[in-house]
């Protein structure tokens, strides 16, 4: 039985607690939050103890920690948990700075603790099946990857202002998906962006509409588009074109009911946002972590994947500001 300590009982912390509750071989023994009430509510539902973050990390009743606190707290918690010998499941992004992620790589490597960077989309049943079939060679060499990722509506300006920008905050998931589907690392990044959804996002120094082209050393090309607005729900699609064919994975809709009339076909909206759309992925991600730690197998994506996605986000941010492609 893997005993988990949960750090951070906010939006994503609740999702992980729910996954733990329904999975075998894992239990939630302790939780911590900067707001004790938030921790207590979650602890009551799961029969866990409420402790401080330091006490969760030090607890002999905890084998592994889930870091689900705001991104700017990950660095210190990773260091403390690694030094305490705990396996670490860390929400993305690992940190906003590639140099600080390198420090985290160093401590995790030195202490030899298992580490999973929570890029949940790799665990989505559709995207995971698509990637497995690419790897099985069904479409031959990958030549073009197209990733479309659009949020239903923008977050508050106060969030945008400290988000690190669209590439580090939102497209970071797509950079990881690009590496996952391409099977190799991009060597060049070219980004364009505009503030079309809300001029206040532009005034805050960010963009809400962006496109990035990634090129690999083999010549494969990936195009990612992001928007902070999609009136039809959370839009999450990928298409991979290879020498022998093409795979695509479409949106997951609220239901499968379709109306057909003389005017055409009408289907349900896409699932509203990440909590609903990636429910199965969040569960599979925790299941993978538990299996990796208990069976002493590598957890994937690891901390190096967290760093690689951050480097792409940094390069895209630089490319947007300079108007030039950035070589990696
Ligand atoms: N993988 C995904 O799909 C996904 C989705 C949402 C958020 N995230 C990531 O998860 C992290 C948390 O995001 P969220 O949306 O759940 O935020 P949130 O604000 O809803 O929750 C964070 C919680 O952490 C608590 N907290 C703050 N500092 C703490 C500390 N030092 N120790 C213990 N608790 C502390 C806060 O009180 C809050 O309850 C972020 O890194 C974010 O990028 C990932």
The chain-level structural class is alpha/beta
- Taken in chain order, the helices and strands follow as EHEHEHEHEHEHEHHHEHEEEEEEHHHE
- Distinct compounds present: nicotinamide-adenine-dinucleotide
What does the average pLDDT come to? 97
Largest sheet: 7 strands, mixed
DSSP helix count?
A: 13
Alpha carbon gap, first and last residue: 42 Å
Tally of strands:
15
Side by side, the strands of the main sheet go 12-11-7-10-9-8-15
Q: What is the CATH level 1 assignment of the largest domain? A: Alpha Beta
The CATH topology assignment of the largest domain is Dihydrodipicolinate Reductase, domain 2
Radius of gyration: 20 Å
What is the annotated CATH architecture of the largest domain?
2-Layer Sandwich
Low-confidence stretches: none
Question: How many distinct domains?
Answer: 2
What's the CATH H-level homologous superfamily of the largest domain? Dihydrodipicolinate Reductase, domain 2
Features:
328 residues, alpha/beta, Dihydrodipicolinate Reductase, domain 2, 2 domains, seven-stranded mixed beta sheet, 13 helices, binds nicotinamide-adenine-dinucleotide
């Amino acid at each position: 039985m893997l005993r988990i300590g949960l750090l951070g009982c906010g939006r994503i912390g609740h999702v992980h607690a729910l996954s733990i509750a329904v999975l075998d071989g894992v239990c939630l023994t302790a939780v911590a939050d900067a707001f004790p009430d938030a921790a207590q509510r979650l602890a009551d539902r799961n029969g866990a103890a409420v402790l401080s973050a330091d006490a969760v990390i030090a607890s002999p009743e905890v084998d592994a920690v889930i870091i689900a606190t705001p991104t700017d707290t990950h660095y210190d918690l990773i260091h403390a948990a690694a030094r305490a010998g705990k396996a670490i499941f860390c929400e993305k992004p690992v940190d906003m700075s590639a140099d600080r992620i390198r420090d985290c790589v160093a401590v995790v490597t030195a202490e030899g603790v298992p580490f999973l960077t929570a890029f949940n989309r790799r665990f989505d049943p559709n995207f995971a099946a698509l990637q497995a079939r690419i790897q099985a060679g069904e479409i031959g060499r990958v030549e073009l990857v197209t990733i479309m990722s659009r949020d239903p509506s923008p977050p508050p300006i106060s969030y945008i202002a400290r988000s690190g920008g669209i590439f580090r905050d939102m497209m970071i998931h797509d950079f990881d998906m690009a590496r996952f589907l391409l099977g190799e690392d991009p060597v060049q990044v070219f980004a364009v962006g505009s503030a079309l959804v809300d001029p206040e996002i532009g005034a805050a120094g960010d963009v809400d509409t962006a496109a990035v082209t990634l090129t690999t050393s083999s010549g494969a090309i990936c195009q990612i588009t992001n928007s902070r607005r999609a009136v039809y729900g959370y839009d999450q699609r990928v298409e991979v074109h290879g020498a022998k064919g093409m795979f695509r994975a479409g949106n997951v809709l609220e239901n499968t009911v379709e109306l057909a009339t003389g005017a055409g076909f009408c289907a349900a909206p896409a699932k509203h946002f990440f909590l609903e759309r990636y429910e199965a992925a969040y569960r599979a991600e925790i299941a993978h972590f538990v299996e990796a730690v208990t069976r002493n197998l590598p957890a994937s994506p690891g901390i190096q994947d967290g760093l690689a996605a951050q480097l792409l986000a940094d390069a895209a941010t630089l490319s947007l500001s300079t108007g030039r492609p950035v070589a990696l």
